[in-house]
Design brief:
CATH topology of the largest domain: Rossmann fold
Helix content: 25-40%
Distance between the termini: 57 Å
Number of helices: 11
Number of domains: 2
Radius of gyration: 22 Å
CATH architecture of the largest domain: 3-Layer(aba) Sandwich
CATH class of the largest domain: Alpha Beta
CATH superfamily of the largest domain: NADH:ubiquinone oxidoreductase-like, 20kDa subunit
Length: 336
């Protein structure tokens, strides 16, 4: 789909690892750049992939700041560092003498939309974990508290607050589909959840579509990471508490955290970086502290007890193995 007028996107990298850029580069069978061109999205500049450097890059930023070049979407990857002493000088844009904090506050009012790419830009992320000598913050949040670099009341020229495509790193589809929805004019406040995350992924749980769901249903839990069982009860998996359709769409052609044998660390959530014991489930009186988002604790305890008492031998033994030990057997040969 091509437009008479391109949709101009500026992508800046602040205090982060560059992982969000690495994620989006996987997008599309023909590559991200071809997909952008195909939908009439014009990438004005990206510090890692654009040809313009030095004077040419500074000229693009200056034109946007003056209002001489239209900016439809300002995408920021990485936390905005406020240190030392609120100056932001821990993170300057090379060749400009200005901090990323300064550039963000100068360009955001020019943008039709402001988009936080990744949990660092959305909520502060890894750089904001204690201790935080850099005073890192998200664009509009620090953790789950509104504020951030642009302030709690910031809205872009479209009237929307910052759009938080959280994740560490976010799925490339979340980024591209949000940009396409914005470019087509079919994204508004109703398409964002209470933390500003696009509902296209935030209306799902990472648990949905997990290949270990049968083990979860029977509370047949793994005790070691080599085992096939559910990772929630003992090994710290937060997929039932974390938003995201991670197990419903492929990453890099296939796979997800749980499919790879690791746990969900709820990286789309504010404050995930403060978790202690990522690989061990915190419990109180033997009950996991982190329970499914929409399930009362009493219901979970009752369901877990019932499920464990009804666990088929096949499920129980397979959950404690690193391979399929017992296949399903139909009819009268069913295992007991």
């Amino acid at each position: 789909m091509r437009r008479a007028k391109p949709f101009n996107v500026l992508w800046l990298q602040a205090g982060g690892c560059g992982g969000c850029t690495m994620s989006i580069l996987e997008r599309g069978a023909s590559g991200w750049f071809e997909e952008l061109r195909g939908f009439g999205v014009n990438l004005l500049w990206h510090p890692s992939v654009s040809e313009e450097t030095g004077v040419e890059a500074r000229a693009i930023l200056s034109k946007i700041e003056r209002g001489d070049l239209a900016l439809d979407a300002l995408c920021i990857e990485g936390s905005i560092l406020h240190g030392p002493d609120g100056s932001g000088f821990f993170n300057r844009l090379a060749g400009t003498g200005r901090s990323m904090l300064d550039w963000t506050r100068a360009l955001a009012p020019r943008a039709r939309y402001c988009v936080a790419i990744g949990s660092c830009a959305a909520f502060g992320g890894i750089p904001a974990a204690t201790p935080d000598p850099t005073d890192a913050r998200g664009l509009q949040y620090l953790g789950s508290d509104r504020g951030g670099a642009l302030g709690a009341d910031y809205v872009s020229r479209s009237g929307l607050p910052v759009i938080n495509i959280s994740g560490c790193a976010p799925h490339p589809g979340w980024i591209m589909e949000t940009l396409l929805a914005l470019s087509l004019g079919v994204f508004d406040r109703a398409d964002m959840d209470s933390l500003g995350r696009p509902r296209l992924f935030a209306d799902h749980l990472a648990h949905h579509g997990c290949g270990r769901n049968e083990f979860y249903e029977f509370k047949a839990s793994a005790e070691r990471f080599s085992e096939r069982g559910c990772l929630m009860e003992n090994l710290g998996c937060k997929a039932t508490q974390a938003v995201g359709d991670c197990n419903q769409r492929s990453w890099n052609g296939g796979g997800s955290c749980t499919q790879a044998g690791s746990t969900c660390i709820a990286c789309t959530s504010p404050g995930f970086e403060t978790t202690r014991g990522f690989l061990q489930t915190a419990k109180l009186a033997g009950i996991p502290i982190g329970l499914p988002l929409d399930m009362p604790k009493a219901w979970f305890v009752a369901l877990a007890a019932l499920s464990k008492s009804a666990t088929p031998r096949r499920v129980r033994e397979n959950s404690r193995s690193d391979r399929l030990e017992l296949p399903p057997v139909p009819g009268a040969k069913k295992q007991r």
